[in-house]
Amino acid sequence: MVRTFSELDLDVDLLAAIETKGYSRPTEIQAKAIPAAMDGLDVLASAPTGTGKTAAFLLPTLQHLIDFPRRKPGPARVLILTPTRELAIQIADEARELAANTDLKVFTITGGISYDEHAEILGKTQDLVVATPGRLMEYINAERFDCRAIECLVLDEADRMLDMGFGPIVDKLSHECRWRRQTLLFSATLEGKGVHGFTEDLLNEPERIEASPSRRERKKIHQWYYRCDDMDHKIQLLEHVLKSDESERTIIFLKTRERLAELREKLDSMQIPCCWLQGEMAQSARNNTIERFKSGKVNIMLATDVAARGIDIPDISHVINFDLPRTADVYLHRIGRTARAGKKGSAVSLVEAHDQAMMERIGRYMKEPVKERFVEEMKPKHKKPAFAVKKKKKKPMPGAARKAKKSS
Ligand code: ADP
Ligand code: MG
What we know:
The protein has helices spanning 12-21, 28-38, 53-67, 85-98, 115-122, 133-141, 158-163, 167-176, 195-202, 231-242, 257-269, 283-294, 305-308, 328-335, 356-365, 386-389, 398-407; strands at 43-46, 78-81, 106-109, 128-131, 152-155, 182-187, 207-210, 220-228, 250-254, 275-277, 300-304, 318-321, 344-352, 371-372.
């Protein structure tokens, strides 16, 4: 396996940009996926969040654009599909940084941007376009976006796109890009329902690449949970975590916008400043939130799951699950917001009695139970639900039991 970027046969312009970004050596997924993609193979790759998947698909696609420069102006040649607009913006930013020493043109096409603004973009020569599926499909249907020049299609966070119901649109988009020569699919997990059938249709004898985080990259996430009796108790424990010394920059996850609004008011009344991210927010407000949080003007961000998907904000010290997620894989995604690129982080869950079963399920999914902690003066009053600690025993079928009795 390659150990340095210079072994990767990348253009000097890209290598210089990598150096500017401060990446000293490729992460495991980069070391594995970049050579395969540069060989022109289809790639099906999974690696944990925060391990550098973005550059793993951007570098080989940018290299291709450099190797085969366009001869005349025209439509996009690389299309990257991603589930949310924040993620699209983030990928485009990274693409621009990596392509800073080239003439390549990078654009985004996502919801939340005016049609006028897009009209201008769509008329220009584009090399690499990062898009969310819905809005792009609108432009294709209106014959305003031309997929015929797409040579490379990248699906980022494929599992999320499927979860969000983008499967059929992504299928259609991939059909629109049928003249492409390469497809790269990246995902944090390949386990979600339907990912299998989906990848089979899209990819052509893909190189399967899986990166387990190396010791260097393995995330040092300290995970634990507190049991809470009710909302007030939850707030007390939340305040305790927020006021602890290690707590620097924190994301708090809630399950709905209503819950988010409730907590926002509560924090407001406690004079704890926070910003928030939720679905159906104006683009400028979302950008503003992310900017304030990233720059450190505010150190607490409340978020719903859809709004927070895939966003890369460096140096998050704590992820707090004020509400547990609906499924265990979302837990993994949430806590993946902290401890990015080898840094330390904490993930704290606030668990009410009715959440206990979910907490155990999360432990099984993570292949390691999440430990319970107590705060001395804030211990829960309710008893830990018993069903949750019991190990599931396989009960024999009633019929089988009877038969067994008879024969003994
Ligand atoms: P993923 O898509 O796997 O969740 P990202 O591509 O968003 O991860 O990268 C996570 C963070 O790691 C980003 O801040 C990125 O700039 C950084 N990063 C990526 N590659 C490297 C590298 N080779 N060395 C150091 N940091 C890196
Ligand atoms: Mg990513």
